[in-house]
Design goal:
This protein is mainly beta. It folds into 2 domains: 28-106, Immunoglobulins (Immunoglobulin-like), CATH 2.60.40.10; 112-342, Neuraminidase, CATH 2.120.10.30. Helices cover 8% and strands 50% of the residues. It has 2 helices and 28 strands. It has helices at residues 3-27, 298-301, and strands at 30-33, 39-41, 45-51, 60-65, 68-70, 73-75, 82-91, 96-106, 112-123, 130-136, 139-144, 151-155, 162-167, 174-180, 183-188, 193-198, 204-209, 219-221, 226-229, 234-238, 245-250, 261-267, 270-275, 280-284, 291-296, 313-319, 324-329, 334-342. An 8-stranded mixed β-sheet has the order 22-23-24-25-9-28-27-26. Strands 2-8-7-4-5 form a 5-stranded mixed β-sheet, with no helix packed on it. The protein has a 4-stranded antiparallel β-sheet with strand order 10-11-12-13, with no helix packed on it. The protein starts with a helix and ends with a strand.
């Protein structure tokens, strides 16, 4: 071997050793906080620092939360709740590196307790495995589930008469529905597809695949954005034109996450959502995911005909004309019109 080749091998070897040492040192860096389990409630301050066991020469550090620049002492206020990523960009002089950690942002208030008063009771199809319920222009629409039983319906809520009906293919398990700009958006459960119909004809005009959400549970809208649940604590925000999941909120209280978010309804700027297998409704702030109130509707189940197929509450519709909620469940033979009030 020539001397030149020998020198080249030594230089290359030193280069890789140097890079390896640098990466090893950088990998030793981590983000620390002053919060227990990295959890902080709204209104409190969390402090970030860099754990630097090998005393690497750090020129400066900058932090971001939810892609927004933050200070190392952060008073948590206008951020979404739930698990969020904090990224630290570390300036080492000749290079910079980014490291990250997870923190959990909690609400700082207990949910308020709400009661209800029954205004009316109406007949409801006892065979309907109700998944979605919504008023649109004074008319009630319903989506039902189970393979081989899933339907999309328009119903006379006062009599229970089915005014319009289409059956889904037996390969689909129907889930929630919502209506925006004369379009019905209906979810399926595990088939990773939603359908769009003309509200007047029930003609299917489009379909869409889910993104990160994987499953379809409940859906509602605020007049411009679709909100979709998937059975976890996540509620995904969809653009009604592209039907892509642009962002999400996570449903949290002052204690932790609330999973099983199912059928949803938009009511005066809030999301009313029931939890699967829980005969109650959570009132959710759509900006940050905070559970601001809860309503226990469990007594309603005892007021319907008790039979072998009877299942949980699932079906929330707000009628803006009467400013009342309509509540039913899976295979319930009654639809309850109620007024809600804070206790």
């Amino acid at each position: 071997m020539s001397i030149n080749k020998f020198l080249i091998i030594i230089v290359i070897g030193l280069f890789f050793v140097s890079c390896g040492d640098s990466k090893s040192k950088i990998s030793s860096l981590s983000i620390s906080t002053n919060a227990k389990d990295n959890a902080v409630a709204l209104g409190n301050t969390i402090k970030f620092s860099i754990n630097n066991p090998e005393n690497i020469d750090i020129k400066s550090v900058s932090y971001k939360l939810d892609d927004k620049p933050i200070q190392e002492n952060l008073e948590v206020s206008n951020f979404k709740l739930g698990v969020q990523t904090v990224t630290a960009t570390i300036d080492l002089g000749d290079t910079s590196e980014a490291i990250s950690t997870k923190i959990t942002i909690l609400n700082n208030q207990l949910p308020k307790i709400y009661g209800y008063k029954i205004i009316n009771e109406y007949p409801h199809d006892i065979t309907s495995y109700t998944q979605g319920l919504e008023f649109y222009n004074g008319e009630l629409y319903e989506s039902t589930g189970q393979y081989g039983e899933s339907k999309l319906r328009k119903v006379d809520f006062k009599t229970g008469e089915v005014l319009k009906n289409i059956d889904l293919s037996s390969s689909y398990f129907g889930e929630g529905l919502t209506i925006l700009n004369d379009k019905i958006y209906q979810l399926t459960w595990q088939e990773n597809i939603g359908f769009v119909y003309d509200v007047n004809t029930f003609e299917k005009t489009n379909s869409f695949k889910y993104g990160q959400s994987k499953e379809g549970w409940g859906i509602c809208n605020n007049g411009s954005i679709l909100y979709k649940s998937d059975g976890t604590e996540n509620i995904w925000l969809l653009n009604p034109e592209t039907l892509t999941e642009d962002s999400k909120i996570q449903v949290y209280t002052n204690k932790g996450k609330i999973i099983g978010i199912n059928e949803m309804e938009w009511v005066n700027g809030k999301i009313f959502a029931n939890r699967y297998q829980k005969n109650g409704v959570a009132i959710i702030n759509p900006e940050n995911g905070a559970v601001e109130g809860v309503i226990d509707f469990s007594p309603l189940r005892s007021m319907v005909t008790q039979h072998q197929g009877l299942d949980v509450l699932n079906g929330i519709a707000y009628n803006p004309e009467t400013q009342t909620l309509f509540i039913t469940g899976k295979r319930w033979d009654k639809l309850f019109e109620v007024e809600v009030f804070e206790k």
